[in-house]
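Progress narrative, Year 2. Work on DUF2087 domain-containing protein from Streptomyces venezuelae advanced from sequence curation to structure prediction during this period.
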Amino acid sequence: MTSHPSRPAADSRSVADLFSADGRLKAIPRRPARREALLAHLTATLFEDGRDYREPEINEALLTVHEDFSALRRYLVIGGFLARTKDGSAYRRQQQPGSPGGAIPAVA
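Result:
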């Protein structure tokens, strides 16, 4: 086995490896660590901090990278990357992934 000089950036490399040349996600990773790295990347690149999104907006953004937008949306909420109001009417990018419950207080 040979050592690769780019190994210290393994996280960003692994995320880049998940995408095809056209920018589409090849598959949603099964391994939790790789999936979490992907979710963090998607959150940072697709969603603005401090902004509320309606579900169709979340779906549209996720469709730009993969057809299974509902699975990605679910992983983002369960993983604490996106918070959803209890009534499901709004989503918001979380400050810190992993917040318990995955819900934010009611949005006006």
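The chain has four helices and four strands. Confidence is low (pLDDT under 50) at residues 1-11, 97-108.
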